[in-house]
Amino acid sequence: MVDLSSALKASAENVEEKLKSILSTDDAPERRLIEAMRHAVLGGGKRLRPFLTLQCAGLFGVADQSALRTACAIELVHCYSLVHDDLPAMDDDDLRRGRPTVHKAFDEATAILAGDALLTLAFGVLANPATHANPGVRADLVAQLAKAAGGHGMVGGQMIDLQAGQEDLTIGAITRLQRLKTGALIDFACHAGAILGRAPEPAREALRGYAHDLGLAFQIADDLLDVEGSEDETGKAVGKDKSANKATFVEILGPERARAQATLLATQAADHLAMFDKKADLLRDVARFVVERRH
Amino acid sequence: MVDLSSALKASAENVEEKLKSILSTDDAPERRLIEAMRHAVLGGGKRLRPFLTLQCAGLFGVADQSALRTACAIELVHCYSLVHDDLPAMDDDDLRRGRPTVHKAFDEATAILAGDALLTLAFGVLANPATHANPGVRADLVAQLAKAAGGHGMVGGQMIDLQAGQEDLTIGAITRLQRLKTGALIDFACHAGAILGRAPEPAREALRGYAHDLGLAFQIADDLLDVEGSEDETGKAVGKDKSANKATFVEILGPERARAQATLLATQAADHLAMFDKKADLLRDVARFVVERRH
After folding, report:
1. What tens digit of pLDDT does each residue of B47-70 get?
2. By C-alpha distance, which of B49, B22, B42 is closest to B97?
3. Distance CA B57, CA B209 (A)
4. DSSP string of B240-252?
5. Residue B155: which of A117, A157, A162 has the nearest Cβ?
6. Mean pLDDT (whole number) for B61-83
7. Which residue from B90, B149, B160 is facing A112, i.e. has the nearest CB?
8. Which H/E stretch holds residue B6?
9. How does residue B239 score in pLDDT terms, banded at 50, 70 and 90?
């Protein structure tokens, strides 16, 4: 049996290598932009979303290269969203993964452009024939990513989150906010494996259920880390949600009930995977991992 | 013979209608974002890039719906780039098309997110089966747009432009800058028509030549307007290039030689279209129009 932490490490290394080659530098006058993109993407992160894509693709025997390129495209989108979220006009963070954020290491204009270019690149990677021989699969990946990451997906969630401090959100409204802000891209990370593998509907349905519960568990755990974690452990500023008066699950439920809810969701997530038998063991382990992690 | 200004007007109306339906509002909590996107996109602009796509698609008998959706996707990218360029950290403009820029009408965070969502939406529109029945065509549109708009395309050009004030650029370097910053998307606007129409290589080559010369002519004319135009005519602040110490064609060549160069390029652009005979008359007219326009 493969151990999750070794599997995560091996996967993160593969993703890092591929991201490096996708973000290769040259001597063009726009190299400052490429350097900022590399700063945003390389050398860090758990690479959780790519891991989900690789594991889900593995359930359907998808070719390594297809899965890896798709996983990288999703990580590019995740990284662009962090670069823009960290900007002074947004969350105004100086630290990310223990390093200066892009607008600190470079400047604000470069950070805006680097985010834009990363998002654009993600779509370019998916649409490239190297990602999958079947253009229908490529076009579907692009369409689904656009939906997950767009105005009624991740960016929409970020918009609601920015306004959330101004009003008291119900648990239903927070759930929707988080479904969009972090859930949609996690859903797509799983769904992409099924698209690549042209999986039958029952398998897609199972992965949708898994991704849905995993995404919420992940977000609650993240809120708990913001309350309970230390800056050293998380590599970013903590206690920000409270000081920004942001509505979170922890704020409404209290830490104990929030932790119980996260654990329940993680168990539920794993339960969706019955049909995949042992092949989904690492995905089950991930569900436990996201609620137990300390960073 | 159809007159260019009526053709531009009719085309802009069709594009406006379609953009409205693409950017439809609802009562979702993220509606502020959609409103900001609509502010950025609707109610203005010459819609020059969509016109190019529609005209080029027309050379190959592309279905109206395919051409119109693709034209709208390109306009979404153009509008997103304006929203981000106008931000305080970038060009810091308060006025666009005679109206407050998005960060003025809303706020900075909303402008950043609206730009992100518009870019994402553009790819979603292209990848949607409604745009073309052939998924290979859709995937190709996405791949080529990503190239034109990305780090070695439009965004790369914007990066170089931001640094340009700091150094004296040669005419070669400015040409490269403009090829990326405005040329790449104009190229794609023309090329998209050929992709949709599965045009043979000689036709693509002709359109590449046309788009190349048109893009440069357009940019020189734009620089001239910044020097010679009035705020009333252009609907945006003028004289900004000089005050920002930006390297432009006009700065290096002087207004007279710059105008002569733009006129020459416009003639050259039209000359590339010989093989299309009368079908390309409006595209020839556009080349003249971009250098003669007062706004």
Report:
1. 999 999 999 999 999 999 999 999
2. B42
3. 16
4. HHHHTT---HHHH
5. A117
6. 98
7. B90
8. helix B4-22
9. low
Residue A99 has pLDDT above 90, yes or no: yes
| Chain B interface, best mutation among A123, A174, A177, by max B CB count within 10 A | A123
Cβ-contact A142, B131 below 8 angstroms: no
CB A202 within 8 A of CB A276: no
Query: What ipTM score was computed for the predicted complex, to two decimals?
Result: 0.95
Q: Which domains does chain B have, with CATH numbers?
A: 4-292 (1.10.600.10)
Per-window interface: A 116-155 vs B, CB < 8 A: 116-117, 119-121, 123-124, 126-129, 134-136, 138-140, 142-143, 145-147, 149-152, 155
Q: Which residues contact A237 (CB under 8 A, 6 or more apart)?
A: A93, A94, A95, A231
Alpha helix (H) residue ranges in A102-170? 102-105, 108-127, 135-149, 154-164
The closest CB to that of A84, out of B112, B128, B158, belongs to B112
pLDDT digits (tens, 9 = 90+) for A212-254: 999 999 999 988 988 886 655 566 666 666 556 667 888 888 9
pLDDT-derived band at A70, boundaries 50, 70, 90: very high
